[in-house]
Specification:
eight-stranded mixed β-sheet; single chain; alpha/beta; Rossmann fold; 309 residues
Length: 309
């Protein structure tokens, strides 16, 4: 992998269609902008209509001729996920970027009763991918890229307590949700290979990138000191969101990206150009991947149609 890879190295994406969740800010916005700059037609899937449309305008302003649209998607509400998927009318989908996420929030539940971090970061994207899978399978060279985190190392998945009802610790719950992202990619890649499909399921993480993700949880609980510490880290330590988006863009567009790969920043997994990233051994478990898959199908009611898998 080229240590100097950057957004200028993205291959021509003309004629390709992409969906980017959480594209209204941070890494998602940069990802959508650079895909549009490379010629892709990009659908910004965002919860907030005003912010989503403003993001589309910002991309059009930055990229002359950018082909971008907004569509409402609330990953904390499976009815919204189903509505979004039903409204996707194109006959192809080349790139699904499962980027949106929440981090270290106080305990809460989604509209369907799931713990918020597990529900948004994993189950919402699981359902979205399953509902859009026929479009992906019908598109040669399609890829699904799920944005995980180096902090998946904080915790393995707990199949006996997926909703963290026994003992909720915000950072442990976050780590579990990011482990779930990697197990999902692992199992999707395994099933696609068993079916003889060319679909590439891969994962990426941004390292320590400056976005509003770090401060959201502290702000919700009015923890001023924690919020200020996070803001200081963003200013002093973190790399900009434009650099944090590079691993996602690499996984989505670079030639030769392998199924079940995990791409992150080069320098200690915190910053720098994209390269293969370390991941905890538990994220490669076929047994855990299948158990989480079955549980996710039961919880969401979304069954994946992977012929022959």
């Amino acid at each position: 992998m080229n240590q100097g890879w950057n957004a200028r190295d993205i291959p021509d994406q003309s004629g390709r269609r992409a969906v980017v969740t959480g594209a209204n800010s941070g890494i998602g916005l940069i990802t959508a902008r650079e895909l549009a700059r490379s010629g892709a037609r990009v659908l910004l899937a965002c919860r907030d209509e005003r912010r989503g449309k403003e993001a589309a305008d910002r991309i059009r302003y930055a990229v002359r001729g950018a082909d971008v649209e907004f569509a409402a998607l609330d990953l904390a509400d499976l009815s919204s996920v189903r509505e979004f998927a039903a409204g996707y009318r194109a006959d192809r989908l080349d790139l699904l970027i499962n980027n949106a996420g929440v981090m270290a929030l106080p305990y809460g539940r989604t509209a369907d009763g799931f713990e918020t971090q597990f529900g948004v970061n994993h189950l919402g994207h699981f359902a979205l991918t399953g509902l859009l899978l026929p479009k992906l399978l019908a598109t040669p060279g399609a890829r699904v890229v799920s944005v995980s985190s180096g902090l998946h190392a904080l915790a393995d998945i707990d199949m006996g307590d997926l909703n963290s009802e026994r003992d909720y610790r915000r950072w442990v719950a976050y780590g579990r949700s990011k482990t779930a992202n990697l197990l999902f990619v692992h199992e999707l890649a395994r099933r696609a290979a068993a079916a003889g499909s060319g679909l590439v399921a891969a994962a990426a993480h941004p390292g320590y990138a400056s976005t509003n993700l770090q401060t959201a949880g502290a702000r919700m609980e009015n923890r001023r000191l924690a919020e200020r510490v996070m803001e200081l880290g963003n200013r002093v330590i973190a790399q900009p969101a434009s650099a944090g988006a590079l691993p996602t863009l690499y996984a989505a567009t670079a030639p030769g990206v392998r199924p079940d790969s995990f791409t992150g920043p080069r320098l200690l997994g915190w910053r720098g150009a994209p390269r293969p990233s370390w991941r905890a051994g538990w994220t490669r478990s076929d047994v855990a991947g299948e158990r989480l898959w079955v549980a996710s199908e039961q919880l969401t009611g979304v069954t994946f149609a992977v012929p022959g898998a």
